[in-house]
Amino acid sequence: MIIGLNEFTKLKPDFFLKKNTRFLFYLSGIIVFYMITLPVLGILPTNISIWGTALILACLILALINKPKKPINFLLNFSFAYIYVSIPFALLATFHFLNDLKIEDHELLLGFFIILWSNDVFAYLVGSTIGKTKLAERISPKKTWEGTIGGIILSMLAAYLISNYFFSLDLENWLVLGLLISIFATLGDLLESWFKRQAGVKDSGKLMPGHGGVLDRFDGMILAAPIVYIYLSIVL
Question: Given CA atoms 232, 233, 235, 236 in this order, what sign does their dihedral have?
């Protein structure tokens, strides 16, 4: 999550030129993460969010004292990073407590990633093999409708197979997760591609040579995790 926040500052370099501004940005992003995860894990009481919010506001005020260019845009980018980076990673870290008894259960987290990876792999394989119809050429020239549909189909198949071994959810809910993850992972990929296009860079980072950075590798998760969390919170 911290590496992802650092990569975000490089996509928006004009707003994070000063070291103390970046420090406040990282600090507030970490506070957002722990505000969500620690109460769920039973480490801190739920009312910690009051103090966490106060600390985040203090960080925002101190960052504004640095007199950034275009302060309104700065605040919007500062705040958007919490939604785009901190919150998805925090929600992902609480998946294993999303059940009726609120006990530790790793099946939801493992199932999430198996479906996510199935979508990525088969969207690429189908798209590179038979893909002709561009999905969003201006944003991501290589993405095709054929690849997207292939990813959805194989995600649903992966969800079906998972339901035979992971019993935290029934077949119907696993299939719904397969569809949600596939759709929103694709949208997350497109959103990250749009950010990089706006910033004029090929990858968000260089953490993994040939694969980019954290935001490149987790772009699908970033949108899919909050949607899955909301859905599971309703049905469980």
Answer: positive
Residue type, 165: Y
pLDDT tens digits along 22-56? 898 999 999 999 998 888 777 877 777 788 888 88
Distance (Å) of CA 43 to CA 26, 48, 135:
22, 10, 44
Cα(112)–Cα(12) distance, integer angstroms: 30
Mean pLDDT, the chain, as a whole number? 87
Question: 207 pLDDT band (50/70/90 cuts)?
Answer: confident
The answer to whether 7 and 204 have CB atoms below 8 angstroms apart is yes
pLDDT value at 213 more than 80: yes
Q: How far is CA 63 from the centre of its chain?
A: 25
CA distance 78 to 56: 11
Integer Cα distance of 97 and 106 in angstroms: 8
Contact between 228 and 180 (Cβ < 8 Å)? yes
With beta carbons less than 8 A apart as the criterion, state whether 156 and 178 touch. yes
Between the alpha carbon of residue 28 and those of residues 55, 102, 145, 225, the distances in Å are: 7, 28, 39, 21
- Residue of 46, 85, 102 whose CA lies nearest to 226: 85
Amino acid at 43: I
More confident residue, 116 or 235: 116
Instruction: Tell me how far apart the alpha carbons of residues 32 and 52 are, in angstroms, rounded to a whole number.
Output: 7
* DSSP string for residues in 80-137: HHIIIIIHHHHHHTTGGG-STT-----HHHHHHHHHHHHHHHHHHHHHHHH--SEEET
